[in-house]
Amino acid sequence: MTLRIKREECTYTNSYCEENVWHICNYVRGNHPALLNECYAVFISNENQSVPLWSQKNSNNHQGLVFWDYHVIFIHYVNERCDVYDLDTTLEFPCSFDEYKTKALGSDETLQTQFHRSFRVIPADQYLTSFASDRSHMIKDGKWLKPPPVYPPIFNATSQNNLYAFINMTNNSDQEVPGQVLNHQNFVLRF
C-alpha cells in the first residue's frame, strides 16, 4: 500500500524538523498503523554539524542551498519504492528518493570532507518511543532563536532531552538512541 500524506495535513514548525518528523511518524501510527514498519526517521548531520542540502525553502539563493547543523526527513520504503517527506524542501511532497538524492542531497564526492554527511536511519516506531526534546537547543541568551511549536515538548518515559544523542554521528553503538549510522554512499544504497 502506498502512503500518501499531504503537506497541509502535517504538523509543522519552522526549524523544528525533528519534531515535525516525529509528528509524521505519529500520524502514520494513528492512521496507517500497518505501514509504520515501512517508515523511518532519518537524521542528517556530521561531526562539524554543518551539512549542505539543496532545494530548501529557507535558502536565499537560486539553488536552494542551506547549511543545516542537522536536518531530519521521513522515509516510506516498501517494495523497492521509496518516498521522502521533507517539510522544508521546495521539491514535491512526497518526492521519490531518486529525485531527493539528486536535487536535495547531491553527492559527497563534490564536497569538501568537512561537509560530508552521515545519516542515522531510525525505524519510525523506535523513534516515537525514544525521541525527546525540551527545545533548549533553540534558546540562546534566554531568547528563542526561532519561535517554539505551540504544542508541548516531546518527552518519553526515560528522557526529557536526548536530541544531541540522535545528532551525534560518531557513535553508532549509543544505547540511548536507536538507528544505524550510514555514510552518504551506504545511505543511497540502503534506499
TrEMBL record:
GO terms for MF: protein-N-terminal asparagine amidohydrolase activity; protein-N-terminal glutamine amidohydrolase activity
Q: What EC class is this?
A: hydrolase
Q: Which InterPro entries match?
A: N_Gln_amidohydro_ab_roll_sf (IPR037132), NTAQ1 (IPR039733), Prot_N_Gln_amidohydro_ab_roll (IPR023128)
Stretches of the chain forming a coiled coil according to its record:
none
Annotated Protein N-terminal glutamine amidohydrolase alpha beta roll domain ranges read 12-190
Annotated Pfam families: Nt_Gln_amidase (PF09764)
Q: What is its EC number?
A: 3.5.1.122
Name the catalysed reactions: N-terminal L-glutaminyl-[protein] + H2O = N-terminal L-glutamyl-[protein] + NH4(+)
Q: Does Membrane show up as a keyword for this record?
A: no
Keyword set includes Secreted: no
UniProt record similarity statement: Belongs to the NTAQ1 family.
PANTHER family found in the cross-reference section: PROTEIN N-TERMINAL GLUTAMINE AMIDOHYDROLASE (PTHR13035:SF0)
How does the annotation summarize its subunit structure? Monomer.
Q: What is the name attached to this protein's record?
A: Protein N-terminal glutamine amidohydrolase
